[in-house]
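Input/output pair, single chain:
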Amino acid sequence: MKRTLVIAPGPTANGDLHLGHLAGPFLAADVCARYARAAGRDVLFGTGVHFTQNYIVTTARRLGVQPEDLRVRSAGQVEETLAAAGIRPDGFVRFGDRYVKTVRHFFERLHSAGKLRLQAVRFPYAPRTGEYLTDAYVRGGCPVCLADGCAGLCENCGHWIASGDLIGPRSTLDPDDPVELREEQVLVLPLEDHREALVEYFARQSATMRPRLAQMIEEILSRPLPDYPVTLPIAWGIPAPFPEVAGQVIYADAETIAWSMHCTALAAEHRGAVLAADDELWFSDAGAEVVYFFGSDAGFAFAVVGAAMLLALGGYVLPGHFVTNEFYELDHDKFSTSRGHVVTGRELAAEVPRDLIRFYLASTSPDFQRTNFTREALEQVTGARLVRPWNRVADKVATWTGRGPLAVSERSRAAAGLMLNRFAAAYDVRRFSLTSVAFTLSEQLARLDRWEVGPDDAGDFCHEVEVFLRCAGPVLIDLAGEAFPDPAIPAAPRAADTAPVTRITPVRLPRLAETGQ
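Output:
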């Protein structure tokens, strides 16, 4: 059986996770991993926190705390919030000596293989402080879409923005400081050297990529690919182990593959594996499939640069799927910790049952476009589409408990097979969609709610309710977990190696509480 490595790249360790984070990659990755595991597949799910972006420095400065303290505190908050939402990774990346060793070793291999080049690169520079300004340290206009933002990955178009290419760069550390452009020798990965292999790779990926990632890939491949910096002339980050760039650090956004390898190694070890190295699961002959879940603005770093690095080293599997998402808004405005416009997962989970949170976030998931969260809509949607219909269905099942085994017809077995297929289509990683999962869940629950149950079809009804709840289990984790300690999803009744269900003994099913209860 091919092992699946599900990865939700870690957020920057400069704060807690808000609902925008959860509704994007983290809930989707958790649901995907839960379904695949319940369906009998070998799955490792990893996430964590990214500790080396200089956004940690700028946030710490704004908050009046030390960057090291902020990143440790943020990691703990992220873990707590994931747990509050029922998101259960096998591995969680924290900053430590092992991580640093993994990153340095990865780039030492690229360096010794001759895949990195020393090159003069322009950076914004603040003469007053003598500092180069990269990523969070500098803002300006995106040279592709004109949106204002920091250097690095453009949140608007998804392209990578070299610091020296920003339009009208200005310092975020001190907006009144004059800024000029200066050249500095850094190590770069020439992406153009891997154009042919990247074109071939993304041609294979095009059928399953979501629109904004596909558009970004198409746009960047239509022009010369950039020389991507691997080291930067700043102080925050992992020190680069190369004498020709002494005093520089490894570019945080270039750590994507090393971070991912460390993440999956931690996940495997949590499940009892003993690995010789963090990259062991990524060797081509290991037979694993890598599936990424991330926001569309991270596509360049993980999809393009990540694939180029794996191609440069050779012998590694390339990611099989990229499941991206757009922004999730709060009251039709972007989540913003700095403006206090935010709701964290822990805050909401303290007031609302987490199955309802998971269902609503799935229903409004920003799979293909920006979507919105409001507390009023959560109460309305979960009450009308989940809580009240489910409780009516549970009450119907309760009237048939204690009466012994009930007959299940061929018609019901066929209907259950169709229901399984509809859920499987939404969960399948090639077309994975949380909104499709939530839609299928709502439609099937509404069908069961409309069922007028009598003595002749009570067994059919109870059978289809059980199949429904097992299929909904990756989203409704507490409801399904209370009803069925065994999380396995039944195989389609028509499968050749599956004994047909002919009788069922109904069990009393748990009820759901509404948000205000």
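The mean pLDDT is 94. The longest helix spans residues 375-398.
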